[in-house]
From TrEMBL:
Boundaries of every Mitochondrial apoptosis-inducing factor C-terminal domain copy: 661-788
Compartments where found: Cytoplasm, Perinuclear region; Mitochondrion inner membrane; Mitochondrion intermembrane space; Nucleus
Low complexity composition bias: residue spans: 127-150, 182-210, 222-236
Role description: Functions both as NADH oxidoreductase and as regulator of apoptosis. In response to apoptotic stimuli, it is released from the mitochondrion intermembrane space into the cytosol and to the nucleus, where it functions as a proapoptotic factor in a caspase-independent pathway. Release into the cytoplasm is mediated upon binding to poly-ADP-ribose chains. The soluble form (AIFsol) found in the nucleus induces 'parthanatos' i.e. caspase-independent fragmentation of chromosomal DNA. Binds to DNA in a sequence-independent manner.
Region (Disordered): 91-150, 182-260
Quaternary structure annotation from Swiss-Prot or TrEMBL: Monomer (oxidized form). Homodimer (reduced form). Upon reduction with NADH, undergoes dimerization and forms tight, long-lived FADH2-NAD charge transfer complexes (CTC) resistant to oxidation. Also dimerizes with isoform 3 preventing its release from mitochondria. Interacts with XIAP/BIRC4. Interacts (via N-terminus) with EIF3G (via C-terminus). Interacts with PRELID1. Interacts with CHCHD4; the interaction increases in presence of NADH.
GO cellular component, one term: perinuclear region of cytoplasm
Protein name (database record): Apoptosis-inducing factor 1, mitochondrial
Cofactor(s) recorded in Swiss-Prot or TrEMBL: FAD
Catalytic reaction list: A + NADH + H(+) = AH2 + NAD(+)
Source organism (scientific name): Astyanax mexicanus (Blind cave fish)
GO biological process, one term: mitochondrial respiratory chain complex assembly
Keyword line: Acetylation, Apoptosis, Cytoplasm, DNA-binding, FAD, Flavoprotein, Isopeptide bond, Membrane, Mitochondrion, Mitochondrion inner membrane, NAD, Nucleus, Oxidoreductase, Phosphoprotein, Transit peptide, Ubl conjugation
Domain FAD/NAD(P)-binding: from-to ranges: 331-657
């Protein structure tokens, strides 16, 4: 570095001379207000004659040489520092390894001292019974085989990793004298860690004391084990002695293996792991019952939990099988109509499919319509237990789709030969991992899947004024949806004196008619209130809604129209409902039937899109929300190719959408083009079926005729053989109906008696919805009219297709 500095001091004046002259000349020109001089050769900053440039060349050569010299110096310095660092590290490692080269002479002496201290009080017969089989005479013959000992040594450090077999239980008994016999398989398999510390006789030399330090050595020496005999009075010196304790362990082990070669449990590792440390701890504890172990032995014998605990836990785990499978090729979330229809469709296309239905309810899949219809008209006093009802045609049926024998147990789903459908009840899916294809249940269980269907249905809405009213009002309010709700309301109708139904839609009107029919016999007051002008005022045109309201009143129901609830309180044992117009209703119980909110709780964790207008999961034409996730039923917001995006909350839609989703889950890739229908029965005499968009705000055209005895829900079920009318639908009926077969139109009736008829709902002069009033089994014709999407000049002619004028 000093040489470079000296060279720079000599060369610097040359550089400064040429640059200084240029700077001074420029300054003079500026100060004299002269024009800035132009340098002809600005690259040659030289004080010599013009065109020379030799000084500049020398300058660059010297500067380059200086840089090279500095780089070489820096490189040599770094290399030297690295070499000195390596030498220093080598010296440190050599110093630290010298003390470790001489291991265990003090340690061995310490182990021998500890073993002698333990063996002095050991004069009990239990120790002799344990030691004698392990130091039998064949020890000298079997000593050259150290491999079993090596196996024990390598696997002893982790006894808890392998479940302990039940054979180890005899070793756990308190009276060891009774359990330890020469034929006992567990005692013969006991480790020889105890032999060194418990030997009372002169047969066991003190040299076997290091035997308890079994986990320390890594490489056993067989020749050292062969050199030791049971009768030797002094320890044999061992030359390569760092791992001397291992041979002393291997000889008794060989003796044990010879004495009982056939006693090996199912997992061989489990025998060694169970018999080694826990048994050692138990026997050593008996040998020095009133005296603690010396410090040396305490370090040798590892601390392990009592064998009683570790043995009982695997036994209990084996006794209790898994509650549910951990994987399901087809996972259906929800136990309603859509899930069951999907399961049946999957099994139809894939007979060996394994389908798992997870439902929050405690019941198997069942149909919901009878809960507000036929079950209330049953004469069976045990209907709440049997849940069987008589349809309008007199046939008896259960609300469950299939008996329990139809399903397989969830624990057998993965092993059953031909697959099946299993239902996991009482569990709710709390979280959905769409990337990992797994769900987490309410009890913490995780289930993976290949394909998943979300059919969670909906949750009944409640009025905010009721939610804010307090616990006393909520205890006396029913949100009607499930089997438990039917049972509770049926019990209330028999015990209380008054029930008020809030809501004038399908559910509210059906429950009002059902309870009104029973009010006379039970002495029950039934009140129905809603903000519309008549029952089902949002669906039916005003004239038909008013006619329906009169029909409900005839059933014994007190109907309050245009009733908006303002406040609800609990006073003097009654629920008091105040309306905005000042009316007050006091009742014993309230039924809120004000609509359904789609259950979309999984949307957040699954990252699925929710429709902001209609609610529910947005799906494509194949009812698919993501690549392996489908949605069906009330929770699906689908695109109707004729009517646009919609969400339908009816039984028929659940059946059809569930069936289509199941087909697409098996690879069908079919679009959803079906126009679902729905129906409602106000008792056995009045009922209607509807399809498409039925909204009372749309313009309507109604064509009615005189009803006959065949034009009732009861007659319809007698003809079709089923109360669930959507099950009897076939698309072929629409093609078989000809326009020419329609009967001529009779003269209009003089009396307003809407016995039967067809109501058309129009949008831009096109039929978008149809209600068949007491006209049954004609739904395929209505579906075809909506599907065609044509303008009709005279809807009376279209009504002839339904044969409403037949006698």
């Amino acid at each position: 570095m000093f040489k470079c500095k000296a060279a720079w001091n000599k060369l610097a004046p040359l550089a400064r001379a040429s640059s200084t002259l240029c700077r001074q000349a420029g300054k003079r020109a500026v100060f004299r207000h002269e024009r800035t001089p132009q340098f002809v050769q600005p690259a040659h900053m030289s004080s010599g004659p013009s065109g020379g440039g030799g000084e500049n060349t020398l300058y660059f050569v010297l500067v380059g040489a200086t840089c090279l010299a500095g780089g070489a110096y820096a490189y040599s310095t770094l290399v030297g520092d690295r070499e000195r660092y390596q030498q220093r590290i080598t010296e440190i490692e050599s110093r630290s390894s010298k003390p470790a080269a001489e291991p265990s002479t003090p340690a061995k002496t310490q182990l021998e001292t500890a073993a002698q201290a333990v063996s002095e009080p050991t004069e009990e017969p239990v120790s002799e019974a344990v030691v004698e089989p392990s130091i039998a005479e064949p020890v000298q013959e079997e000593a050259p085989a150290p491999e079993p000992a090596a196996e024990l040594v390598t696997e002893a450090p982790a006894p808890e990793a392998v479940p302990e077999p039940p054979v180890a239980e005899p070793c756990l008994a308190e009276p060891v004298v009774e359990e330890v016999t020469p034929e006992a398989p567990v005692l013969e398999a006991a480790p020889e860690l105890v032999v060194a510390s418990e030997a009372p006789a002169p047969e066991t030399p003190a040299s076997e004391a290091p035997a308890p330090e079994e986990p320390a050595p890594e490489e056993p020496a067989p020749e050292a084990a062969a050199s030791q005999e049971p009768d030797s009075g002094a320890p044999t010196p061992e030359a390569p002695a760092p791992e001397a304790p291992v041979p002393e362990v291997s000889a008794p082990e060989a003796a044990l293996e010879e004495s009982a070669p056939e006693i090996v449990p199912e997992p061989p590792v489990a025998e060694h792991l169970v018999a080694e440390e826990p048994v050692t701890e138990a026997l050593v504890t008996e040998a020095v019952s009133a005296e603690p172990l010396p410090a040396a032995v305490a370090e040798i014998v590892p601390e392990t939990p009592p064998v009683t605990q570790s043995a009982s836990e695997p036994a209990s785990a084996a006794a209790s099988p898994a509650v549910e499978p951990t994987h399901a090729p087809y996972l259906l979330i929800g136990g309603g109509t859509a899930s069951f229809a999907a399961a049946r469709s999957i099994r139809a296309r894939d007979p060996g499919a394994r389908v798992l239905i997870v439902t929050e309810e405690d019941d198997l899949p069942y149909m919901r319509p009878p809960l507000s219809k036929e079950l209330w008209f049953s004469d069976d006093p045990t209907v709440t237990e049997t849940l069987c009802f008589k349809q309008w045609n007199g046939k008896e049926r259960s609300i469950y789709f299939q008996p329990p024998s139809f399903y397989v147990s969830p624990t057998e789903l993965e092993s059953v030969e031909n697959g099946g459908v299993a239902v996991l009840t009482g569990r709710k899916v709390m979280h959905m991992d769409v990337r990992g294809n797994k769900v987490k249940l309410s009890d913490g269980t995780e289930i993976s899947y290949d394909k998943c269907l979300i059919a969670t249905g909906g949750i009944p809405r409640n009025l905010q004024v009721i939610e804010r009213a307090g616990d006393e009002v909520m205890k006396r309010t029913t949100l009607f949806r499930k089997i438990e709700d039917f049972k509770a309301l049926e019990k209330v109708s028999r015990e209380l004196k008054s029930i008020t139904i809030i809501g004038g839609g399908f559910l509210g009107s059906e429950l009002a008619c059902a309870l009104g029919r029973r009010s006379a016999d039970l002495g029950l007051e039934v009140v129905q209130m809603f903000p519309e002008k008549g029952n089902m005022g949002k669906v039916l045109p005003e004239y038909l809604s008013n006619w329906t309201t009169d029909k409900v009143k005839k059933e014994g129901v007190k109907v309050l129209t245009e009733a908006v609830v303002k406040n609800v309180t609990y006073k003097e044992g009654k629920v008091e409902i105040k309306l905005k117009d000042g009316r007050v209703v006091k009742t014993d119980h309230v039924v809120a039937a004000v609509g359904l909110e789609p259950s979309v709780e999984l949307a957040k964790s699954a990252g699925l899109e929710i429709d902001s207008d209609f609610g529910g999961f947005r799906v494509n034409a194949e009812l698919q929300a993501r690549s392996n996730i489908w949605v069906a039923g009330d929770a699906a917001c689908f695109y109707d190719i004729k009517l646009g995006r919609r969400r339908v909350e009816h039984h028929d839609h659940a059946v059809v959408s569930g069936r289509l989703a199941g087909e697409n889950m098996t690879g069908a890739r079919k679009p959803y083009w079906h126009q679902s229908m729905f129906w409602s029965d106000l008792g056995p005499d009045v009922g209607y079926e509807a399809i498409g968009i039925v909204d009372s705000s749309l313009p309507t055209v109604g064509v009615f005729a005189k009803a006959t005895a065949k034009d009732t829900p009861k007659a319809a079920t007698e003809q079709s053989g089923t109360g669930i009318r959507s099950e009897s639908e076939t698309e072929a009926v629409a093609g078989s109906v000809a326009v020419g077969k329609a009967a001529p139109t009779p003269p209009p009736q003089q009396k307003e008696d809407y016995g039967k008829g067809v109501i058309f709902y129009l949008r831009d002069k096109v039929v978008v919805g149809i209600v068949l009033w007491n006209v049954f089994n004609r739904m395929p014709i209505a579906r075809k009219i909506i599907k065609d999407g044509e303008e009709h000049a005279d809807l009376n002619e279209v009504a002839k297709l339904f044969n409403i004028h037949e006698e």
